[in-house]
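[stage:ingest] chain + small molecule (adenosine-5'-diphosphate)
[stage:ingest] validated
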Amino acid sequence: MTKTIFINTLLVGITVLILCALLFFGVQYSRAKDETLSSLEQEARYAERGLMMSGSDYLESLGSSDRITWIDPTGEVLLDTREPLPAPNEIDSPEVISALSEGSGNCIRKSDHTGKSTMYYALKCSDGTILRLSRPMSAVRSAIIAVSPVFWIIVIVLIISGLLAYRAAKQIVQPINNIDLDHPESLAYPELSPLLEKISEQKMTIQDEAASREQMRREFTANVSHELKTPLTSISGFAELMAAGAVSDDKVKEFSTDIYNESQRLISLINDIIRLSQLDENAPMPEAETIDLYELSGSVVDSLKNIAQQGRVSISRSGESAKVTGVYRIIHEMVYNLCDNAIKYNRPGGWVDVNISDSPEGVKLIVEDNGIGISKENQKRVFERFYRVDKSHSKEIGGTGLGLSIVKHAAQYLDVKIDLESELGKGTKIALYFKSF
Ligand code: ADP
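[stage:predict] done
[stage:export] C-alpha coordinates:
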Protein backbone atom coordinates (compact mmCIF):
# COMPACT_ATOMS: atom_id res chain seq x y z
CA MET A 1 0.00 0.00 0.00
CA THR A 2 2.87 2.36 0.92
CA LYS A 3 4.42 1.64 -2.47
CA THR A 4 1.15 2.36 -4.32
CA ILE A 5 0.52 5.64 -2.50
CA PHE A 6 4.17 6.64 -2.98
CA ILE A 7 4.20 5.84 -6.70
CA ASN A 8 0.87 7.58 -7.29
CA THR A 9 1.86 10.69 -5.35
CA LEU A 10 5.20 10.79 -7.16
CA LEU A 11 3.51 10.37 -10.53
CA VAL A 12 1.16 13.25 -9.77
CA GLY A 13 4.18 15.38 -8.70
CA ILE A 14 6.22 14.49 -11.80
CA THR A 15 3.27 15.16 -14.12
CA VAL A 16 2.61 18.55 -12.52
CA LEU A 17 6.31 19.47 -12.70
CA ILE A 18 6.65 18.37 -16.33
CA LEU A 19 3.54 20.36 -17.27
CA CYS A 20 4.87 23.39 -15.37
CA ALA A 21 8.27 23.04 -17.07
CA LEU A 22 6.65 22.75 -20.52
CA LEU A 23 4.51 25.78 -19.80
CA PHE A 24 7.45 27.76 -18.44
CA PHE A 25 9.77 26.99 -21.36
CA GLY A 26 6.91 27.54 -23.83
CA VAL A 27 6.26 31.01 -22.41
CA GLN A 28 10.02 31.72 -22.39
CA TYR A 29 10.38 30.65 -26.02
CA SER A 30 7.45 32.77 -27.16
CA ARG A 31 8.76 35.75 -25.20
CA ALA A 32 12.28 35.38 -26.62
CA LYS A 33 10.78 35.11 -30.13
CA ASP A 34 8.71 38.29 -29.64
CA GLU A 35 11.72 40.13 -28.25
CA THR A 36 13.89 39.07 -31.19
CA LEU A 37 11.22 40.19 -33.66
CA SER A 38 10.74 43.60 -32.05
CA SER A 39 14.51 44.10 -31.85
CA LEU A 40 14.80 43.26 -35.60
CA GLU A 41 11.89 45.61 -36.29
CA GLN A 42 13.50 48.46 -34.38
CA GLU A 43 16.87 47.86 -36.00
CA ALA A 44 15.22 47.80 -39.45
CA ARG A 45 13.57 51.17 -38.85
CA TYR A 46 16.90 52.79 -37.83
CA ALA A 47 18.63 51.19 -40.79
CA GLU A 48 15.90 52.39 -43.19
CA ARG A 49 16.27 55.94 -41.95
CA GLY A 50 20.08 55.81 -42.36
CA LEU A 51 19.77 54.17 -45.76
CA MET A 52 17.40 56.81 -47.05
CA MET A 53 19.62 59.60 -45.78
CA SER A 54 23.13 58.23 -46.46
CA GLY A 55 22.66 55.47 -49.04
CA SER A 56 23.96 51.90 -49.00
CA ASP A 57 27.29 52.90 -47.41
CA TYR A 58 25.39 53.42 -44.20
CA LEU A 59 24.39 49.76 -44.15
CA GLU A 60 28.00 48.64 -44.69
CA SER A 61 29.21 50.93 -41.95
CA LEU A 62 26.53 49.80 -39.47
CA GLY A 63 28.52 46.71 -38.47
CA SER A 64 25.35 44.94 -37.23
CA SER A 65 25.60 41.37 -35.98
CA ASP A 66 22.39 40.66 -37.94
CA ARG A 67 22.45 40.00 -41.63
CA ILE A 68 21.03 42.93 -43.63
CA THR A 69 19.75 42.50 -47.17
CA TRP A 70 18.59 45.35 -49.40
CA ILE A 71 16.23 44.18 -52.09
CA ASP A 72 14.66 46.12 -54.96
CA PRO A 73 10.89 45.76 -55.72
CA THR A 74 11.65 43.11 -58.37
CA GLY A 75 13.33 40.90 -55.76
CA GLU A 76 16.84 41.57 -56.95
CA VAL A 77 19.34 41.86 -54.10
CA LEU A 78 21.07 45.24 -54.15
CA LEU A 79 23.20 44.59 -51.10
CA ASP A 80 23.78 41.75 -48.63
CA THR A 81 26.02 42.29 -45.61
CA ARG A 82 26.82 38.52 -45.46
CA GLU A 83 26.65 37.25 -49.03
CA PRO A 84 28.59 38.82 -51.84
CA LEU A 85 26.61 39.54 -55.00
CA PRO A 86 25.20 38.08 -57.19
CA ALA A 87 22.64 36.78 -54.69
CA PRO A 88 19.46 34.84 -55.59
CA ASN A 89 16.28 36.76 -56.39
CA GLU A 90 14.22 37.19 -53.21
CA ILE A 91 10.82 38.04 -54.74
CA ASP A 92 9.39 34.67 -53.59
CA SER A 93 10.50 35.02 -49.94
CA PRO A 94 7.34 35.21 -47.78
CA GLU A 95 8.59 38.16 -45.70
CA VAL A 96 9.43 40.10 -48.88
CA ILE A 97 5.99 39.38 -50.39
CA SER A 98 4.32 40.66 -47.15
CA ALA A 99 6.54 43.74 -47.01
CA LEU A 100 5.77 44.64 -50.65
CA SER A 101 2.02 44.39 -50.09
CA GLU A 102 1.65 45.43 -46.41
CA GLY A 103 4.72 47.51 -45.63
CA SER A 104 6.37 44.89 -43.43
CA GLY A 105 6.56 41.13 -43.04
CA ASN A 106 8.27 38.48 -40.96
CA CYS A 107 8.75 34.74 -40.89
CA ILE A 108 10.87 31.96 -39.46
CA ARG A 109 12.35 29.60 -42.02
CA LYS A 110 15.50 27.79 -42.98
CA SER A 111 18.04 30.14 -44.46
CA ASP A 112 19.26 29.33 -47.98
CA HIS A 113 22.50 30.98 -46.97
CA THR A 114 23.31 29.20 -43.68
CA GLY A 115 20.85 26.29 -43.81
CA LYS A 116 19.81 27.13 -40.22
CA SER A 117 16.42 28.13 -38.84
CA THR A 118 16.34 31.91 -39.05
CA MET A 119 13.96 34.77 -38.20
CA TYR A 120 13.43 37.32 -40.96
CA TYR A 121 11.95 40.82 -40.78
CA ALA A 122 11.39 42.81 -43.97
CA LEU A 123 10.45 46.52 -44.13
CA LYS A 124 9.32 48.49 -47.18
CA CYS A 125 11.43 51.66 -47.47
CA SER A 126 10.00 55.02 -48.57
CA ASP A 127 11.58 54.51 -52.05
CA GLY A 128 9.76 51.19 -52.53
CA THR A 129 12.83 49.00 -51.90
CA ILE A 130 12.86 46.35 -49.18
CA LEU A 131 15.22 46.23 -46.24
CA ARG A 132 15.42 42.82 -44.63
CA LEU A 133 17.13 41.83 -41.40
CA SER A 134 17.65 38.26 -40.27
CA ARG A 135 18.88 36.61 -37.08
CA PRO A 136 19.45 32.86 -36.51
CA MET A 137 16.96 31.19 -34.14
CA SER A 138 19.92 29.87 -32.14
CA ALA A 139 19.89 33.32 -30.59
CA VAL A 140 16.37 32.66 -29.36
CA ARG A 141 17.40 29.26 -28.00
CA SER A 142 20.30 30.88 -26.21
CA ALA A 143 17.83 33.11 -24.45
CA ILE A 144 16.02 30.03 -23.18
CA ILE A 145 19.23 28.29 -22.16
CA ALA A 146 19.96 31.41 -20.20
CA VAL A 147 17.14 30.36 -17.90
CA SER A 148 18.48 26.75 -17.59
CA PRO A 149 19.03 27.10 -13.82
CA VAL A 150 15.26 26.78 -13.68
CA PHE A 151 15.70 23.29 -15.12
CA TRP A 152 17.99 22.30 -12.28
CA ILE A 153 15.59 23.82 -9.79
CA ILE A 154 12.87 21.62 -11.28
CA VAL A 155 15.08 18.53 -10.89
CA ILE A 156 15.77 19.42 -7.25
CA VAL A 157 12.06 20.03 -6.63
CA LEU A 158 11.38 16.64 -8.21
CA ILE A 159 13.79 14.87 -5.84
CA ILE A 160 12.38 16.72 -2.83
CA SER A 161 8.80 15.90 -3.86
CA GLY A 162 9.82 12.22 -4.23
CA LEU A 163 11.17 12.17 -0.68
CA LEU A 164 8.09 13.97 0.63
CA ALA A 165 5.81 11.56 -1.25
CA TYR A 166 7.59 8.60 0.35
CA ARG A 167 7.29 10.14 3.81
CA ALA A 168 3.62 11.02 3.26
CA ALA A 169 2.84 7.48 2.03
CA LYS A 170 4.44 6.00 5.14
CA GLN A 171 2.59 8.40 7.39
CA ILE A 172 -0.75 7.52 5.76
CA VAL A 173 -0.23 3.77 5.99
CA GLN A 174 1.26 3.55 9.49
CA PRO A 175 -1.96 4.40 11.41
CA ILE A 176 -3.83 1.82 9.29
CA ASN A 177 -1.29 -0.86 10.19
CA ASN A 178 -1.59 0.10 13.84
CA ILE A 179 -5.40 -0.18 13.95
CA ASP A 180 -6.56 -2.12 16.97
CA LEU A 181 -9.49 -4.13 15.55
CA ASP A 182 -10.77 -4.75 19.07
CA HIS A 183 -10.94 -1.00 19.73
CA PRO A 184 -11.58 0.60 16.32
CA GLU A 185 -12.78 3.81 18.01
CA SER A 186 -9.10 4.74 18.56
CA LEU A 187 -8.79 5.19 14.79
CA ALA A 188 -6.84 8.07 13.28
CA TYR A 189 -9.07 8.19 10.17
CA PRO A 190 -12.79 8.61 10.91
CA GLU A 191 -13.48 7.88 7.19
CA LEU A 192 -12.50 4.26 7.81
CA SER A 193 -15.07 3.83 10.58
CA PRO A 194 -17.79 2.25 8.36
CA LEU A 195 -15.30 -0.28 7.01
CA LEU A 196 -14.07 -1.16 10.48
CA GLU A 197 -17.62 -1.46 11.75
CA LYS A 198 -18.30 -3.97 8.96
CA ILE A 199 -15.12 -5.92 9.83
CA SER A 200 -16.10 -5.88 13.48
CA GLU A 201 -19.64 -7.12 12.64
CA GLN A 202 -18.17 -9.87 10.48
CA LYS A 203 -15.81 -10.84 13.26
CA MET A 204 -18.76 -11.09 15.68
CA THR A 205 -20.72 -13.19 13.16
CA ILE A 206 -17.74 -15.52 12.68
CA GLN A 207 -17.35 -15.81 16.46
CA ASP A 208 -21.08 -16.49 16.88
CA GLU A 209 -21.01 -19.07 14.11
CA ALA A 210 -17.96 -20.75 15.64
CA ALA A 211 -19.69 -20.80 19.05
CA SER A 212 -22.90 -22.25 17.60
CA ARG A 213 -20.89 -24.82 15.63
CA GLU A 214 -19.10 -25.78 18.80
CA GLN A 215 -22.44 -26.03 20.60
CA MET A 216 -23.81 -28.23 17.80
CA ARG A 217 -20.72 -30.43 17.98
CA ARG A 218 -21.12 -30.87 21.73
CA GLU A 219 -24.83 -31.66 21.38
CA PHE A 220 -24.08 -34.10 18.58
CA THR A 221 -21.43 -35.90 20.62
CA ALA A 222 -23.76 -36.07 23.62
CA ASN A 223 -26.63 -37.35 21.43
CA VAL A 224 -24.46 -39.93 19.69
CA SER A 225 -23.14 -41.21 23.02
CA HIS A 226 -26.66 -41.45 24.39
CA GLU A 227 -28.07 -43.14 21.28
CA LEU A 228 -25.23 -45.66 21.21
CA LYS A 229 -25.36 -46.32 24.92
CA THR A 230 -29.07 -47.22 25.04
CA PRO A 231 -28.99 -50.24 22.68
CA LEU A 232 -25.58 -51.31 23.98
CA THR A 233 -26.86 -51.30 27.58
CA SER A 234 -29.81 -53.47 26.52
CA ILE A 235 -27.56 -55.86 24.57
CA SER A 236 -25.15 -56.08 27.49
CA GLY A 237 -28.02 -56.67 30.00
CA PHE A 238 -29.67 -59.40 27.87
CA ALA A 239 -26.35 -61.11 27.26
CA GLU A 240 -25.42 -60.95 30.95
CA LEU A 241 -28.71 -62.56 31.98
CA MET A 242 -28.30 -65.30 29.38
CA ALA A 243 -24.69 -65.93 30.43
CA ALA A 244 -25.75 -66.20 34.08
CA GLY A 245 -28.34 -68.82 33.04
CA ALA A 246 -31.08 -66.57 34.37
CA VAL A 247 -33.11 -66.93 31.17
CA SER A 248 -35.38 -69.90 30.83
CA ASP A 249 -35.15 -71.92 27.60
CA ASP A 250 -38.46 -70.64 26.29
CA LYS A 251 -37.27 -67.03 26.71
CA VAL A 252 -33.91 -67.50 24.96
CA LYS A 253 -35.45 -66.92 21.51
CA GLU A 254 -37.14 -63.73 22.68
CA PHE A 255 -33.90 -62.44 24.27
CA SER A 256 -31.87 -63.32 21.18
CA THR A 257 -34.37 -61.45 18.99
CA ASP A 258 -34.08 -58.42 21.28
CA ILE A 259 -30.29 -58.56 21.05
CA TYR A 260 -30.56 -58.84 17.25
CA ASN A 261 -32.98 -55.89 17.02
CA GLU A 262 -30.84 -53.70 19.25
CA SER A 263 -27.75 -54.59 17.20
CA GLN A 264 -29.60 -53.70 13.99
CA ARG A 265 -30.55 -50.35 15.53
CA LEU A 266 -26.90 -49.78 16.42
CA ILE A 267 -25.77 -50.65 12.90
CA SER A 268 -28.31 -48.33 11.24
CA LEU A 269 -27.43 -45.56 13.70
CA ILE A 270 -23.72 -45.92 12.95
CA ASN A 271 -24.44 -46.03 9.21
CA ASP A 272 -26.47 -42.83 9.45
CA ILE A 273 -23.73 -41.10 11.46
CA ILE A 274 -21.15 -42.13 8.85
CA ARG A 275 -23.35 -40.83 6.00
CA LEU A 276 -23.96 -37.56 7.77
CA SER A 277 -20.29 -36.98 8.46
CA GLN A 278 -19.47 -37.81 4.82
CA LEU A 279 -21.96 -35.17 3.66
CA ASP A 280 -20.65 -32.75 6.30
CA GLU A 281 -17.09 -33.08 5.05
CA ASN A 282 -18.11 -31.31 1.84
CA ALA A 283 -15.89 -33.72 -0.01
CA PRO A 284 -15.67 -33.18 -3.79
CA MET A 285 -18.71 -34.70 -5.46
CA PRO A 286 -18.13 -38.08 -7.10
CA GLU A 287 -18.62 -38.05 -10.87
CA ALA A 288 -22.17 -36.74 -11.40
CA GLU A 289 -24.38 -38.99 -13.52
CA THR A 290 -27.64 -38.65 -15.38
CA ILE A 291 -30.41 -40.12 -13.27
CA ASP A 292 -34.03 -40.77 -14.18
CA LEU A 293 -35.87 -39.85 -10.99
CA TYR A 294 -38.96 -41.79 -12.11
CA GLU A 295 -36.93 -45.00 -12.37
CA LEU A 296 -35.06 -44.31 -9.13
CA SER A 297 -38.34 -43.71 -7.26
CA GLY A 298 -39.72 -46.96 -8.71
CA SER A 299 -36.84 -48.89 -7.21
CA VAL A 300 -37.32 -47.17 -3.80
CA VAL A 301 -41.07 -47.93 -3.86
CA ASP A 302 -40.37 -51.58 -4.74
CA SER A 303 -37.87 -52.01 -1.94
CA LEU A 304 -40.29 -50.54 0.63
CA LYS A 305 -43.43 -52.40 -0.54
CA ASN A 306 -43.07 -55.19 2.07
CA ILE A 307 -42.51 -52.79 4.95
CA ALA A 308 -45.50 -50.74 3.80
CA GLN A 309 -47.64 -53.85 3.60
CA GLN A 310 -46.67 -54.79 7.16
CA GLY A 311 -47.96 -51.39 8.29
CA ARG A 312 -51.03 -51.74 6.04
CA VAL A 313 -50.00 -48.69 4.09
CA SER A 314 -50.15 -48.56 0.28
CA ILE A 315 -47.24 -47.02 -1.60
CA SER A 316 -47.27 -45.88 -5.22
CA ARG A 317 -45.33 -43.86 -7.75
CA SER A 318 -46.86 -41.43 -10.23
CA GLY A 319 -45.78 -38.78 -12.73
CA GLU A 320 -43.39 -38.97 -15.65
CA SER A 321 -39.82 -39.74 -16.54
CA ALA A 322 -37.51 -36.82 -15.63
CA LYS A 323 -33.75 -36.69 -15.75
CA VAL A 324 -31.41 -34.89 -13.35
CA THR A 325 -27.68 -34.89 -12.80
CA GLY A 326 -26.37 -36.00 -9.41
CA VAL A 327 -25.04 -38.90 -7.41
CA TYR A 328 -27.36 -41.93 -7.60
CA ARG A 329 -26.50 -43.29 -4.14
CA ILE A 330 -27.21 -39.96 -2.41
CA ILE A 331 -30.48 -39.23 -4.25
CA HIS A 332 -31.65 -42.79 -3.63
CA GLU A 333 -31.00 -42.34 0.07
CA MET A 334 -32.93 -39.05 0.16
CA VAL A 335 -36.00 -40.55 -1.54
CA TYR A 336 -35.72 -43.72 0.57
CA ASN A 337 -35.61 -41.75 3.86
CA LEU A 338 -38.62 -39.63 2.85
CA CYS A 339 -40.68 -42.69 1.79
CA ASP A 340 -39.58 -44.65 4.87
CA ASN A 341 -40.80 -41.79 7.12
CA ALA A 342 -44.05 -41.48 5.16
CA ILE A 343 -44.73 -45.18 5.88
CA LYS A 344 -43.48 -45.10 9.50
CA TYR A 345 -45.48 -42.01 10.50
CA ASN A 346 -48.68 -43.24 8.91
CA ARG A 347 -51.78 -45.15 10.03
CA PRO A 348 -53.17 -48.52 8.92
CA GLY A 349 -55.08 -47.95 5.69
CA GLY A 350 -52.99 -44.89 4.83
CA TRP A 351 -51.21 -44.19 1.55
CA VAL A 352 -47.88 -42.83 0.31
CA ASP A 353 -47.29 -41.46 -3.18
CA VAL A 354 -44.08 -40.42 -4.89
CA ASN A 355 -44.75 -38.04 -7.76
CA ILE A 356 -42.19 -36.87 -10.33
CA SER A 357 -42.85 -33.97 -12.69
CA ASP A 358 -40.65 -32.04 -15.08
CA SER A 359 -40.93 -28.31 -15.77
CA PRO A 360 -38.66 -25.65 -17.36
CA GLU A 361 -37.72 -24.49 -13.82
CA GLY A 362 -36.56 -27.97 -12.85
CA VAL A 363 -37.61 -31.43 -11.80
CA LYS A 364 -39.92 -31.77 -8.81
CA LEU A 365 -40.13 -34.92 -6.68
CA ILE A 366 -42.91 -34.99 -4.07
CA VAL A 367 -43.30 -37.60 -1.35
CA GLU A 368 -46.81 -37.25 0.04
CA ASP A 369 -48.67 -39.20 2.68
CA ASN A 370 -51.92 -38.98 4.59
CA GLY A 371 -50.24 -39.99 7.85
CA ILE A 372 -50.06 -38.37 11.28
CA GLY A 373 -48.62 -35.08 10.01
CA ILE A 374 -46.25 -32.69 11.81
CA SER A 375 -47.33 -29.70 13.90
CA LYS A 376 -46.19 -26.22 12.84
CA GLU A 377 -43.69 -25.85 15.70
CA ASN A 378 -42.15 -29.27 15.03
CA GLN A 379 -41.85 -28.58 11.30
CA LYS A 380 -39.08 -26.11 12.13
CA ARG A 381 -37.09 -28.73 14.02
CA VAL A 382 -37.54 -32.06 12.24
CA PHE A 383 -34.43 -31.50 10.09
CA GLU A 384 -32.24 -31.18 13.21
CA ARG A 385 -30.00 -34.07 14.13
CA PHE A 386 -31.61 -36.59 16.53
CA TYR A 387 -34.82 -34.57 16.70
CA ARG A 388 -37.90 -36.73 17.03
CA VAL A 389 -41.41 -35.45 17.53
CA ASP A 390 -42.56 -38.37 19.66
CA LYS A 391 -39.58 -39.59 21.67
CA SER A 392 -41.64 -42.01 23.77
CA HIS A 393 -42.50 -44.20 20.76
CA SER A 394 -39.21 -43.92 18.93
CA LYS A 395 -38.10 -47.38 19.97
CA GLU A 396 -41.13 -49.20 18.59
CA ILE A 397 -41.35 -47.04 15.45
CA GLY A 398 -37.61 -47.33 14.82
CA GLY A 399 -35.49 -44.67 13.19
CA THR A 400 -32.44 -42.88 14.42
CA GLY A 401 -33.60 -39.27 14.35
CA LEU A 402 -31.06 -38.65 11.57
CA GLY A 403 -33.16 -39.45 8.47
CA LEU A 404 -34.34 -35.91 7.63
CA SER A 405 -31.00 -34.45 8.70
CA ILE A 406 -29.33 -36.65 6.07
CA VAL A 407 -31.94 -35.47 3.51
CA LYS A 408 -31.19 -31.82 4.36
CA HIS A 409 -27.41 -32.24 4.11
CA ALA A 410 -27.68 -34.24 0.90
CA ALA A 411 -29.91 -31.52 -0.58
CA GLN A 412 -27.31 -28.87 0.31
CA TYR A 413 -24.59 -31.06 -1.18
CA LEU A 414 -26.50 -31.50 -4.46
CA ASP A 415 -27.97 -27.97 -4.53
CA VAL A 416 -31.52 -29.25 -4.22
CA LYS A 417 -34.27 -27.16 -2.60
CA ILE A 418 -36.55 -28.77 0.01
CA ASP A 419 -40.08 -27.69 0.79
CA LEU A 420 -42.10 -29.16 3.67
CA GLU A 421 -45.88 -28.84 4.01
CA SER A 422 -47.69 -30.71 6.73
CA GLU A 423 -50.85 -30.62 8.78
CA LEU A 424 -51.21 -32.45 12.03
CA GLY A 425 -53.55 -35.42 11.61
CA LYS A 426 -53.87 -34.93 7.84
CA GLY A 427 -50.54 -35.78 6.31
CA THR A 428 -47.22 -34.52 5.04
CA LYS A 429 -45.87 -33.41 1.68
CA ILE A 430 -42.11 -33.00 1.16
CA ALA A 431 -40.96 -31.67 -2.21
CA LEU A 432 -37.43 -31.78 -3.64
CA TYR A 433 -36.63 -29.30 -6.42
CA PHE A 434 -33.77 -30.40 -8.69
CA LYS A 435 -32.15 -28.04 -11.17
CA SER A 436 -33.12 -28.78 -14.77
CA PHE A 437 -30.94 -31.23 -16.71
P1 ADP B 1 -36.47 -40.69 12.39
O1 ADP B 1 -35.33 -41.55 12.18
O2 ADP B 1 -36.91 -40.58 13.81
O3 ADP B 1 -37.58 -40.95 11.46
P2 ADP B 1 -36.12 -38.28 10.90
O4 ADP B 1 -35.03 -37.30 10.97
O5 ADP B 1 -36.32 -39.02 9.64
O6 ADP B 1 -35.90 -39.23 12.12
O7 ADP B 1 -37.46 -37.52 11.24
C1 ADP B 1 -37.50 -36.66 12.35
C2 ADP B 1 -38.90 -36.63 12.91
O8 ADP B 1 -39.77 -35.99 11.98
C3 ADP B 1 -39.49 -37.99 13.12
O9 ADP B 1 -39.15 -38.47 14.39
C4 ADP B 1 -40.97 -37.73 12.96
O10 ADP B 1 -41.52 -37.38 14.21
C5 ADP B 1 -41.07 -36.56 12.04
N1 ADP B 1 -41.44 -36.98 10.66
C6 ADP B 1 -40.63 -37.19 9.63
N2 ADP B 1 -41.30 -37.53 8.51
C7 ADP B 1 -42.60 -37.51 8.84
C8 ADP B 1 -43.82 -37.78 8.13
N3 ADP B 1 -43.81 -38.09 6.83
N4 ADP B 1 -44.96 -37.66 8.80
C9 ADP B 1 -44.97 -37.31 10.09
N5 ADP B 1 -43.86 -37.05 10.81
C10 ADP B 1 -42.69 -37.16 10.21
